Amino acid sequence: MRPRVSVQDPALRSGDFSLRIEPVRSEDAGLYEAQVAYDTEVHSCQVELGIVTVTVSPPSPVVENEPLMLSCNSSHQASLLETCWFHKRHQVPTSRTCYSLHGALSILRPTVSDSGSWSCQLRYSDNEIISATYDLQILGFDGPTNPVVYAAAGSAAD
């Protein structure tokens, strides 16, 4: 896993034997075990790394008014009970243009205002709640509401 993995040597002296993985990949999911031997004592701990991903189809950036689907997947093994979606920290209500199906969120006519932070929250049968965030970019025209622009003859117009 090198060079994505590091251990902070100065922290070892104070008893912190944390492992840092950056960036985390899907294949990094699984059980990790740390063992530290000091004099005659051996201490160990196990940590399971679960992976959650948010993907968009078609891939970002998305063009305004073209349908898109956000999907949220996790490596957690329990039964998925509920998926909730949030846009800029506000829960997304179901509507004619935005609906959830099998945990995925479809947006039929996205606009530039739909850009930004989208989060999914997964709730499982073992009471585990997992969330992930995706920064969505939507390309579109963010011009004047009135399509008529007046300019003086001989001047520039934008």
Which tags fit this structure?
mainly beta, 2 domains, elongated, 3% helix, four-stranded antiparallel beta sheet, 158 residues, 14 strands, Immunoglobulin-like
Fold topology:
Layout: E1 5-7, H1 9-12, E2 19-21, E3 30-38, E4 41-49, E5 52-57, E6 62-63, E7 68-74, E8 80-87, E9 90-91, E10 98-101, E11 104-107, E12 116-124, E13 129-136, E14 138-139
Parallel strand pairs: 6-14
Antiparallel strand pairs: 1-2, 3-4, 5-7, 7-11, 8-9, 8-12, 10-11, 12-13
What's the short story on this structure?
The chain is mainly beta and 158 residues long. The protein has one helix spanning 9-12; strands at residues 5-7, 19-21, 30-38, 41-49, 52-57, 62-63, 68-74, 80-87, 90-91, 98-101, 104-107, 116-124, 129-136, 138-139.
Provide a descriptive summary of the structure in words.
This protein has 158 residues and is an all-beta fold. It folds into 2 domains: 5-49, no CATH class; 52-139, Immunoglobulins (Immunoglobulin-like), CATH 2.60.40.10. The chain is built from 1 helix and 14 strands; from the N terminus they run βαβββββββββββββ. Strands 5-7-11-10 form a 4-stranded antiparallel beta sheet, with no helix packed on it. A 4-stranded antiparallel beta sheet has the order 9-8-12-13, with no helix packed on it. The model has no long low-confidence stretch (mean pLDDT 88).
Overall form: elongated
Provide the CATH top-level class of the largest domain.
Mainly Beta
Helix content: under 10%
Tally the helices: 1
Number of domain modules:
2
Q: Quick one: biggest sheet?
A: 4 strands, antiparallel
Multimeric status of the protein: single chain
What is the element string, with H for helices and E for strands? EHEEEEEEEEEEEEE
Average pLDDT number? 88
Model regions low in confidence, pLDDT < 50 over at least 5 residues: none
